[in-house]
Amino acid sequence: MLVYVLPLLLSHPQQAGSVQAPQPQYTAEQDHKAMMDALHIESIRPGKNGMNPRDPNYANYDESKANPFPTLPDPLVFKSGKPVKSARDWRRRRTEIVEDFDREIYGRVPRHTPRVNWEVASTTNENNGNFKVVTKKLIGHVDNSSFPSIKVDIQVSLSTPADAKGPVPVIMEFGFAFPAGPRPGGNRPTGGPVRAPQGSQPGGGGPTWQQQVLAKGWGYATITPNSVQADNGAGLTQGIIGLVNKGQFRKPDDWGALRAWAWGASRALDYFETEKAVNAKQVGLEGHSRYGKATIVAMAYDPRFAIAYVSSSGEGGAKLSRRNWGEIVENVAGSGEYHWMAGNFIKYAGPLGWGDLPVDAHELIAMCAPRPVFISGGALNGDGWVDAKGMFMAAAAAGPVYKLLGKKDMGTTEYPPIETPLIDGDVAFRQHSGGHTPGPNWPTFITFASRYIQAPG
Ligand code: GCU
Protein backbone atom coordinates (compact mmCIF):
# COMPACT_ATOMS: atom_id res chain seq x y z
CA MET A 1 0.00 0.00 0.00
CA LEU A 2 2.77 2.33 1.06
CA VAL A 3 4.05 2.09 -2.49
CA TYR A 4 1.24 4.09 -3.96
CA VAL A 5 0.57 6.33 -0.98
CA LEU A 6 4.09 7.68 -0.71
CA PRO A 7 4.29 9.30 -4.14
CA LEU A 8 0.79 10.70 -3.75
CA LEU A 9 1.81 12.45 -0.57
CA LEU A 10 5.06 13.70 -2.01
CA SER A 11 3.48 14.95 -5.19
CA HIS A 12 0.70 16.76 -3.38
CA PRO A 13 1.94 20.25 -4.38
CA GLN A 14 1.28 19.55 -8.08
CA GLN A 15 -2.12 18.15 -7.36
CA ALA A 16 -2.92 21.34 -5.47
CA GLY A 17 -2.29 23.14 -8.72
CA SER A 18 1.14 24.66 -8.22
CA VAL A 19 2.61 23.73 -11.58
CA GLN A 20 6.09 25.00 -10.78
CA ALA A 21 6.54 22.66 -7.83
CA PRO A 22 9.47 20.31 -8.32
CA GLN A 23 8.77 16.70 -9.21
CA PRO A 24 9.16 14.21 -6.39
CA GLN A 25 12.55 12.60 -6.82
CA TYR A 26 13.34 8.97 -6.22
CA THR A 27 16.52 7.11 -6.73
CA ALA A 28 16.49 4.09 -9.04
CA GLU A 29 16.93 1.92 -5.94
CA GLN A 30 13.83 3.43 -4.31
CA ASP A 31 11.75 3.03 -7.44
CA HIS A 32 13.01 -0.53 -7.93
CA LYS A 33 12.19 -1.35 -4.31
CA ALA A 34 8.70 0.14 -4.70
CA MET A 35 8.11 -2.08 -7.72
CA MET A 36 9.38 -5.15 -5.84
CA ASP A 37 6.97 -4.31 -3.01
CA ALA A 38 4.11 -3.97 -5.47
CA LEU A 39 5.04 -7.44 -6.80
CA HIS A 40 5.38 -8.83 -3.25
CA ILE A 41 8.97 -9.83 -3.95
CA GLU A 42 11.50 -9.60 -1.16
CA SER A 43 14.65 -10.43 -3.03
CA ILE A 44 15.86 -11.41 -6.47
CA ARG A 45 18.82 -13.44 -7.67
CA PRO A 46 21.88 -11.36 -8.54
CA GLY A 47 22.98 -10.70 -12.10
CA LYS A 48 26.21 -12.13 -13.47
CA ASN A 49 29.50 -10.36 -13.06
CA GLY A 50 30.85 -9.49 -16.50
CA MET A 51 34.17 -8.12 -15.31
CA ASN A 52 35.95 -10.47 -12.96
CA PRO A 53 36.57 -14.06 -14.11
CA ARG A 54 37.56 -15.01 -10.57
CA ASP A 55 34.11 -14.12 -9.19
CA PRO A 56 32.13 -17.35 -8.62
CA ASN A 57 29.23 -15.47 -10.17
CA TYR A 58 31.19 -14.61 -13.32
CA ALA A 59 29.15 -14.80 -16.53
CA ASN A 60 29.07 -18.17 -18.27
CA TYR A 61 30.95 -18.54 -21.55
CA ASP A 62 30.86 -22.34 -21.72
CA GLU A 63 28.50 -23.62 -24.42
CA SER A 64 27.97 -26.92 -22.58
CA LYS A 65 26.24 -24.94 -19.78
CA ALA A 66 24.50 -22.40 -21.99
CA ASN A 67 21.13 -24.03 -22.63
CA PRO A 68 19.42 -24.99 -19.37
CA PHE A 69 16.00 -24.54 -21.03
CA PRO A 70 16.47 -25.88 -24.55
CA THR A 71 12.76 -26.02 -25.36
CA LEU A 72 11.38 -22.68 -26.54
CA PRO A 73 7.73 -21.63 -26.53
CA ASP A 74 6.39 -22.47 -29.99
CA PRO A 75 5.28 -19.34 -31.87
CA LEU A 76 3.17 -21.54 -34.15
CA VAL A 77 1.01 -23.11 -31.45
CA PHE A 78 -1.91 -21.21 -29.92
CA LYS A 79 -2.23 -21.07 -26.13
CA SER A 80 -5.13 -23.48 -26.59
CA GLY A 81 -2.70 -26.04 -28.00
CA LYS A 82 -4.04 -25.75 -31.55
CA PRO A 83 -1.51 -25.38 -34.35
CA VAL A 84 -1.13 -22.14 -36.31
CA LYS A 85 -1.61 -23.11 -39.95
CA SER A 86 -2.17 -19.98 -41.99
CA ALA A 87 -1.31 -16.31 -42.22
CA ARG A 88 -4.78 -15.66 -40.86
CA ASP A 89 -4.11 -17.88 -37.84
CA TRP A 90 -0.82 -16.07 -37.32
CA ARG A 91 -2.58 -12.72 -36.95
CA ARG A 92 -4.52 -14.14 -34.02
CA ARG A 93 -1.53 -15.97 -32.55
CA ARG A 94 0.52 -12.78 -32.82
CA THR A 95 -2.06 -11.04 -30.63
CA GLU A 96 -1.46 -13.65 -27.92
CA ILE A 97 2.30 -13.13 -28.16
CA VAL A 98 1.94 -9.33 -28.06
CA GLU A 99 -0.19 -9.60 -24.91
CA ASP A 100 2.53 -11.63 -23.17
CA PHE A 101 5.27 -9.19 -24.16
CA ASP A 102 3.07 -6.27 -23.08
CA ARG A 103 2.17 -7.66 -19.68
CA GLU A 104 5.34 -9.47 -18.64
CA ILE A 105 8.32 -8.16 -20.60
CA TYR A 106 8.23 -4.62 -22.00
CA GLY A 107 5.01 -3.23 -20.51
CA ARG A 108 1.95 -1.66 -22.07
CA VAL A 109 1.92 1.64 -23.89
CA PRO A 110 -1.08 3.52 -22.47
CA ARG A 111 -4.16 3.44 -24.68
CA HIS A 112 -4.06 7.21 -24.99
CA THR A 113 -0.73 8.94 -25.27
CA PRO A 114 -0.47 12.71 -25.70
CA ARG A 115 -0.28 14.34 -29.10
CA VAL A 116 3.11 15.37 -30.44
CA ASN A 117 3.44 18.64 -32.28
CA TRP A 118 6.51 18.64 -34.55
CA GLU A 119 8.48 21.83 -34.96
CA VAL A 120 11.19 22.23 -37.59
CA ALA A 121 13.68 24.14 -35.44
CA SER A 122 16.19 24.64 -38.26
CA THR A 123 16.93 23.69 -41.86
CA THR A 124 20.54 23.72 -43.03
CA ASN A 125 22.29 22.92 -46.27
CA GLU A 126 25.53 21.18 -45.43
CA ASN A 127 28.13 18.74 -46.66
CA ASN A 128 28.66 15.29 -45.25
CA GLY A 129 31.90 14.06 -46.80
CA ASN A 130 31.35 14.46 -50.54
CA PHE A 131 27.58 14.54 -50.21
CA LYS A 132 25.34 17.59 -50.09
CA VAL A 133 22.52 17.16 -47.62
CA VAL A 134 19.63 19.12 -46.20
CA THR A 135 19.50 18.71 -42.43
CA LYS A 136 16.45 19.47 -40.35
CA LYS A 137 16.54 19.68 -36.58
CA LEU A 138 13.13 18.60 -35.36
CA ILE A 139 11.55 18.98 -31.97
CA GLY A 140 8.48 16.95 -31.09
CA HIS A 141 6.65 18.90 -28.41
CA VAL A 142 4.57 16.45 -26.40
CA ASP A 143 1.24 17.88 -25.25
CA ASN A 144 1.59 18.11 -21.48
CA SER A 145 -1.64 19.93 -20.71
CA SER A 146 -2.69 16.94 -18.57
CA PHE A 147 0.33 17.41 -16.27
CA PRO A 148 2.20 20.63 -17.08
CA SER A 149 5.07 20.15 -14.64
CA ILE A 150 6.53 17.42 -16.88
CA LYS A 151 7.79 18.62 -20.23
CA VAL A 152 8.88 16.25 -22.99
CA ASP A 153 10.51 17.52 -26.21
CA ILE A 154 11.61 14.75 -28.57
CA GLN A 155 14.85 15.53 -30.41
CA VAL A 156 15.29 14.26 -33.97
CA SER A 157 17.73 15.19 -36.69
CA LEU A 158 16.91 14.34 -40.32
CA SER A 159 19.32 14.60 -43.28
CA THR A 160 18.34 13.90 -46.86
CA PRO A 161 20.41 14.12 -50.06
CA ALA A 162 20.13 17.65 -51.49
CA ASP A 163 19.91 16.35 -55.07
CA ALA A 164 17.27 13.64 -54.45
CA LYS A 165 14.94 12.90 -57.37
CA GLY A 166 12.02 12.35 -55.03
CA PRO A 167 11.19 11.12 -51.52
CA VAL A 168 14.06 9.00 -50.18
CA PRO A 169 14.29 6.01 -47.86
CA VAL A 170 15.64 6.96 -44.44
CA ILE A 171 17.57 4.95 -41.85
CA MET A 172 16.97 6.27 -38.36
CA GLU A 173 19.42 5.57 -35.55
CA PHE A 174 18.74 5.71 -31.83
CA GLY A 175 21.56 7.99 -30.71
CA PHE A 176 22.22 11.67 -30.18
CA ALA A 177 20.34 13.94 -32.54
CA PHE A 178 21.63 17.27 -31.28
CA PRO A 179 25.31 16.68 -30.50
CA ALA A 180 25.88 20.30 -29.53
CA GLY A 181 22.92 20.44 -27.20
CA PRO A 182 22.46 19.05 -23.73
CA ARG A 183 23.11 15.32 -23.45
CA PRO A 184 20.95 14.03 -20.63
CA GLY A 185 23.02 11.54 -18.66
CA GLY A 186 22.47 7.83 -19.07
CA ASN A 187 23.33 5.24 -16.50
CA ARG A 188 26.17 2.79 -16.47
CA PRO A 189 24.57 -0.47 -15.40
CA THR A 190 26.63 -2.47 -12.97
CA GLY A 191 27.80 -5.96 -13.75
CA GLY A 192 28.52 -5.61 -17.43
CA PRO A 193 31.98 -5.39 -18.88
CA VAL A 194 33.51 -2.01 -19.63
CA ARG A 195 33.66 -1.58 -23.37
CA ALA A 196 35.28 0.66 -25.91
CA PRO A 197 33.10 3.61 -26.97
CA GLN A 198 30.47 2.79 -29.56
CA GLY A 199 31.80 3.43 -33.02
CA SER A 200 29.83 3.58 -36.22
CA GLN A 201 32.74 3.31 -38.56
CA PRO A 202 34.21 0.19 -40.05
CA GLY A 203 37.81 -0.50 -39.13
CA GLY A 204 40.36 1.69 -40.87
CA GLY A 205 38.28 4.89 -40.72
CA GLY A 206 36.28 4.37 -43.93
CA PRO A 207 33.05 6.21 -44.63
CA THR A 208 30.69 6.69 -41.68
CA TRP A 209 27.39 4.83 -41.72
CA GLN A 210 25.67 8.04 -42.73
CA GLN A 211 27.99 8.35 -45.74
CA GLN A 212 27.42 4.70 -46.66
CA VAL A 213 23.69 5.34 -46.59
CA LEU A 214 24.08 8.56 -48.65
CA ALA A 215 26.08 6.61 -51.24
CA LYS A 216 22.87 4.63 -51.87
CA GLY A 217 20.87 7.84 -52.24
CA TRP A 218 19.12 7.30 -48.91
CA GLY A 219 18.77 9.73 -46.04
CA TYR A 220 19.56 9.28 -42.36
CA ALA A 221 18.07 10.40 -39.10
CA THR A 222 18.87 10.24 -35.41
CA ILE A 223 16.49 10.25 -32.47
CA THR A 224 17.66 10.98 -28.93
CA PRO A 225 15.96 8.35 -26.74
CA ASN A 226 16.77 10.25 -23.55
CA SER A 227 14.68 13.16 -24.78
CA VAL A 228 11.68 10.81 -24.60
CA GLN A 229 12.52 8.91 -21.44
CA ALA A 230 15.58 8.98 -19.16
CA ASP A 231 17.85 5.95 -19.16
CA ASN A 232 17.49 5.17 -15.46
CA GLY A 233 14.94 4.11 -12.88
CA ALA A 234 15.04 7.49 -11.15
CA GLY A 235 13.46 8.99 -14.27
CA LEU A 236 10.42 6.71 -14.43
CA THR A 237 8.20 9.28 -12.71
CA GLN A 238 9.27 11.76 -15.39
CA GLY A 239 9.66 11.72 -19.18
CA ILE A 240 6.79 10.39 -21.28
CA ILE A 241 6.12 7.57 -18.78
CA GLY A 242 5.93 10.03 -15.87
CA LEU A 243 3.86 12.49 -17.88
CA VAL A 244 1.15 9.91 -18.64
CA ASN A 245 1.28 8.67 -15.02
CA LYS A 246 1.10 12.24 -13.70
CA GLY A 247 4.36 11.81 -11.83
CA GLN A 248 3.38 8.61 -10.00
CA PHE A 249 5.17 5.24 -9.85
CA ARG A 250 4.54 2.70 -12.60
CA LYS A 251 2.12 -0.19 -12.28
CA PRO A 252 3.76 -3.60 -12.86
CA ASP A 253 2.54 -3.83 -16.46
CA ASP A 254 3.21 -0.19 -17.39
CA TRP A 255 5.71 0.49 -20.15
CA GLY A 256 9.42 0.71 -19.57
CA ALA A 257 12.03 2.84 -21.28
CA LEU A 258 12.43 0.52 -24.29
CA ARG A 259 8.80 0.91 -25.27
CA ALA A 260 8.95 4.62 -24.48
CA TRP A 261 11.94 5.02 -26.80
CA ALA A 262 10.16 2.95 -29.44
CA TRP A 263 7.06 5.15 -29.01
CA GLY A 264 9.27 8.17 -29.68
CA ALA A 265 10.56 6.56 -32.88
CA SER A 266 6.97 5.94 -33.99
CA ARG A 267 6.16 9.60 -33.38
CA ALA A 268 9.18 10.56 -35.53
CA LEU A 269 7.76 8.29 -38.22
CA ASP A 270 4.44 10.18 -37.92
CA TYR A 271 6.40 13.30 -38.79
CA PHE A 272 8.20 11.59 -41.69
CA GLU A 273 4.78 10.70 -43.12
CA THR A 274 4.19 14.43 -43.51
CA GLU A 275 7.67 15.24 -44.82
CA LYS A 276 7.96 15.52 -48.63
CA ALA A 277 11.66 14.62 -48.68
CA VAL A 278 11.02 11.21 -47.06
CA ASN A 279 9.51 8.01 -48.40
CA ALA A 280 7.81 7.02 -45.15
CA LYS A 281 7.11 3.51 -46.47
CA GLN A 282 10.86 2.90 -46.52
CA VAL A 283 12.02 4.02 -43.12
CA GLY A 284 14.45 1.67 -41.41
CA LEU A 285 15.74 1.64 -37.85
CA GLU A 286 19.16 0.98 -36.41
CA GLY A 287 20.38 0.88 -32.85
CA HIS A 288 23.21 -0.60 -30.86
CA SER A 289 23.30 -2.31 -27.48
CA ARG A 290 20.47 -0.89 -25.29
CA TYR A 291 19.39 0.98 -28.41
CA GLY A 292 19.58 -2.33 -30.30
CA LYS A 293 16.96 -3.54 -27.82
CA ALA A 294 14.90 -0.39 -28.54
CA THR A 295 15.27 -1.05 -32.27
CA ILE A 296 13.89 -4.58 -32.20
CA VAL A 297 11.07 -3.47 -29.87
CA ALA A 298 10.13 -0.54 -32.14
CA MET A 299 10.26 -2.77 -35.22
CA ALA A 300 8.21 -5.51 -33.57
CA TYR A 301 5.43 -3.18 -32.42
CA ASP A 302 5.11 -0.67 -35.27
CA PRO A 303 4.43 -2.39 -38.60
CA ARG A 304 5.13 0.85 -40.48
CA PHE A 305 8.89 0.44 -40.03
CA ALA A 306 10.25 -1.21 -43.17
CA ILE A 307 13.48 -2.80 -41.95
CA ALA A 308 15.76 -2.95 -38.91
CA TYR A 309 19.45 -3.33 -38.12
CA VAL A 310 19.57 -4.69 -34.56
CA SER A 311 23.13 -4.38 -33.28
CA SER A 312 24.47 -6.21 -30.20
CA SER A 313 21.09 -6.06 -28.50
CA GLY A 314 21.74 -8.99 -26.15
CA GLU A 315 19.55 -9.74 -23.13
CA GLY A 316 16.23 -7.88 -23.28
CA GLY A 317 16.76 -7.65 -27.05
CA ALA A 318 17.26 -10.41 -29.63
CA LYS A 319 19.08 -12.84 -27.31
CA LEU A 320 17.09 -15.76 -25.96
CA SER A 321 16.45 -15.11 -22.27
CA ARG A 322 16.59 -18.87 -21.75
CA ARG A 323 20.32 -18.81 -22.60
CA ASN A 324 22.93 -18.84 -19.89
CA TRP A 325 25.62 -16.82 -21.63
CA GLY A 326 27.00 -13.37 -20.83
CA GLU A 327 24.25 -11.11 -19.59
CA ILE A 328 21.18 -12.81 -18.13
CA VAL A 329 17.63 -11.93 -17.03
CA GLU A 330 18.83 -11.20 -13.48
CA ASN A 331 21.11 -8.39 -14.69
CA VAL A 332 18.28 -6.67 -16.54
CA ALA A 333 15.92 -7.16 -13.57
CA GLY A 334 18.32 -5.33 -11.23
CA SER A 335 18.06 -1.67 -10.26
CA GLY A 336 20.51 -0.53 -12.98
CA GLU A 337 18.46 -1.85 -15.93
CA TYR A 338 14.91 -2.81 -14.87
CA HIS A 339 13.65 0.56 -16.08
CA TRP A 340 14.01 -0.71 -19.67
CA MET A 341 11.32 -3.28 -18.99
CA ALA A 342 7.88 -3.73 -17.41
CA GLY A 343 8.02 -4.08 -13.64
CA ASN A 344 6.62 -7.59 -14.05
CA PHE A 345 9.89 -8.66 -15.71
CA ILE A 346 11.55 -8.55 -12.27
CA LYS A 347 9.53 -11.64 -11.26
CA TYR A 348 11.62 -13.81 -13.57
CA ALA A 349 14.72 -13.11 -11.47
CA GLY A 350 12.87 -14.62 -8.50
CA PRO A 351 10.49 -16.13 -7.56
CA LEU A 352 10.07 -17.27 -11.18
CA GLY A 353 12.81 -18.44 -13.53
CA TRP A 354 13.72 -18.19 -17.20
CA GLY A 355 11.74 -21.28 -18.08
CA ASP A 356 8.59 -19.53 -16.84
CA LEU A 357 8.83 -16.71 -19.38
CA PRO A 358 5.68 -17.05 -21.51
CA VAL A 359 7.56 -15.75 -24.56
CA ASP A 360 11.18 -15.42 -25.62
CA ALA A 361 13.22 -13.36 -28.07
CA HIS A 362 12.47 -15.53 -31.11
CA GLU A 363 8.85 -14.44 -30.79
CA LEU A 364 9.85 -10.79 -30.63
CA ILE A 365 11.68 -11.29 -33.93
CA ALA A 366 8.66 -13.18 -35.25
CA MET A 367 6.48 -10.16 -34.43
CA CYS A 368 8.48 -8.29 -37.09
CA ALA A 369 7.61 -10.84 -39.77
CA PRO A 370 7.20 -10.65 -42.71
CA ARG A 371 9.35 -7.49 -42.65
CA PRO A 372 13.14 -7.87 -42.97
CA VAL A 373 15.31 -7.84 -39.85
CA PHE A 374 19.10 -8.00 -39.61
CA ILE A 375 20.49 -9.32 -36.31
CA SER A 376 24.12 -8.47 -35.55
CA GLY A 377 26.70 -9.11 -32.86
CA GLY A 378 30.45 -8.92 -32.45
CA ALA A 379 33.13 -11.47 -31.64
CA LEU A 380 33.07 -13.47 -28.42
CA ASN A 381 36.23 -11.67 -27.41
CA GLY A 382 34.95 -8.12 -27.08
CA ASP A 383 31.21 -8.66 -27.39
CA GLY A 384 30.64 -11.96 -25.55
CA TRP A 385 28.27 -10.30 -23.06
CA VAL A 386 25.56 -9.93 -25.73
CA ASP A 387 25.59 -13.62 -26.77
CA ALA A 388 25.75 -13.58 -30.57
CA LYS A 389 24.88 -17.27 -30.65
CA GLY A 390 21.80 -16.75 -28.47
CA MET A 391 20.67 -14.05 -30.92
CA PHE A 392 21.35 -16.37 -33.88
CA MET A 393 19.27 -19.08 -32.21
CA ALA A 394 16.39 -16.64 -31.72
CA ALA A 395 16.60 -15.56 -35.37
CA ALA A 396 16.59 -19.23 -36.45
CA ALA A 397 13.59 -20.01 -34.25
CA ALA A 398 11.68 -17.08 -35.81
CA GLY A 399 12.25 -18.68 -39.23
CA PRO A 400 9.10 -20.87 -39.27
CA VAL A 401 6.94 -17.75 -38.85
CA TYR A 402 8.63 -16.02 -41.79
CA LYS A 403 8.10 -19.18 -43.87
CA LEU A 404 4.45 -19.44 -42.91
CA LEU A 405 4.05 -15.87 -44.21
CA GLY A 406 5.67 -16.82 -47.52
CA LYS A 407 9.09 -15.38 -46.68
CA LYS A 408 12.52 -16.96 -46.28
CA ASP A 409 14.27 -17.96 -43.07
CA MET A 410 18.07 -17.79 -42.63
CA GLY A 411 18.53 -21.03 -44.54
CA THR A 412 20.25 -22.78 -41.66
CA THR A 413 19.86 -23.49 -37.97
CA GLU A 414 23.56 -24.26 -37.63
CA TYR A 415 25.66 -21.49 -36.10
CA PRO A 416 27.92 -20.23 -38.89
CA PRO A 417 31.62 -19.34 -38.62
CA ILE A 418 32.28 -15.74 -37.64
CA GLU A 419 31.87 -13.19 -40.48
CA THR A 420 29.52 -15.41 -42.48
CA PRO A 421 26.67 -13.20 -43.75
CA LEU A 422 23.33 -15.02 -43.71
CA ILE A 423 21.43 -12.45 -45.73
CA ASP A 424 19.58 -14.39 -48.44
CA GLY A 425 16.43 -14.70 -46.38
CA ASP A 426 14.17 -12.09 -44.79
CA VAL A 427 15.52 -12.66 -41.31
CA ALA A 428 19.27 -12.18 -41.46
CA PHE A 429 22.35 -12.54 -39.26
CA ARG A 430 26.05 -11.82 -39.17
CA GLN A 431 28.59 -11.93 -36.38
CA HIS A 432 31.44 -9.54 -37.11
CA SER A 433 34.94 -9.85 -35.72
CA GLY A 434 34.94 -6.44 -34.02
CA GLY A 435 33.90 -5.67 -30.46
CA HIS A 436 30.83 -3.96 -29.07
CA THR A 437 30.02 -1.83 -32.10
CA PRO A 438 27.68 -1.75 -35.10
CA GLY A 439 30.47 -0.44 -37.36
CA PRO A 440 31.76 -3.56 -39.13
CA ASN A 441 28.31 -4.82 -40.14
CA TRP A 442 27.02 -1.66 -41.84
CA PRO A 443 28.13 -2.75 -45.35
CA THR A 444 26.43 -6.14 -44.87
CA PHE A 445 23.26 -4.51 -43.58
CA ILE A 446 23.18 -2.09 -46.50
CA THR A 447 23.59 -4.94 -49.00
CA PHE A 448 20.72 -6.76 -47.30
CA ALA A 449 18.57 -3.62 -47.11
CA SER A 450 19.13 -2.79 -50.79
CA ARG A 451 16.84 -5.68 -51.69
CA TYR A 452 13.97 -3.87 -49.95
CA ILE A 453 14.53 -0.13 -50.12
CA GLN A 454 15.64 1.95 -53.09
CA ALA A 455 16.41 5.57 -53.83
CA PRO A 456 13.97 7.28 -56.22
CA GLY A 457 14.68 7.63 -59.94
C1 GCU B 1 25.38 -2.93 -20.38
C2 GCU B 1 24.13 -3.77 -20.32
C3 GCU B 1 23.65 -4.20 -21.69
C4 GCU B 1 23.55 -3.01 -22.60
C5 GCU B 1 24.86 -2.23 -22.58
C6 GCU B 1 24.83 -0.96 -23.41
O1 GCU B 1 26.45 -3.70 -20.78
O2 GCU B 1 24.37 -4.89 -19.50
O3 GCU B 1 22.40 -4.85 -21.61
O4 GCU B 1 23.20 -3.40 -23.88
O5 GCU B 1 25.17 -1.86 -21.27
O6 GCU B 1 23.79 -0.45 -23.76
O7 GCU B 1 25.91 -0.44 -23.68
Sum this structure up briefly.
With 457 residues, the protein is α/β, with parallel strands linked by helices. Helices cover 28% and strands 16% of the residues. The chain has a domain at 105-114 and 162-449: Rossmann fold.
Helix content: 25-40%
Bound molecules: alpha-D-glucopyranuronic acid
Give me the side-by-side strand order of the main sheet.
1-2-3-5-4-6-7-8-9
Summing up helix and strand content along with how strands pair, one would put the structural category as: alpha/beta
Question: Can you tell me the CATH topology of the domain at 105-114 and 162-449?
Answer: Rossmann fold
How large is the count of helical segments?
13
- Runs in which pLDDT lies below 50 for 5 or more consecutive residues are 1-21, 181-189, 196-202
**CATH architectural arrangement of the domain at 105-114 and 162-449:** 3-Layer(aba) Sandwich
Largest sheet: 9 strands, mixed
Strand content: 15-25%
Shape: globular
Give your account of this protein's structure:
The chain is an alpha/beta fold and 457 residues long. The protein has a domain of 298 residues: Rossmann fold, CATH 3.40.50. It has 13 helices and nine strands. It has a nine-stranded mixed sheet with strand order 1-2-3-5-4-6-7-8-9, with helices on both faces. Strand 1 and strand 2 form a beta hairpin. Helix 10 crosses helix 12. The radius of gyration is 21 Å and the shape is globular. 52% of the residues are buried. The N terminus is likely disordered. The site of alpha-D-glucopyranuronic acid (GCU) has 9 residues, from loops. Alpha-D-glucopyranuronic acid binds next to loops.
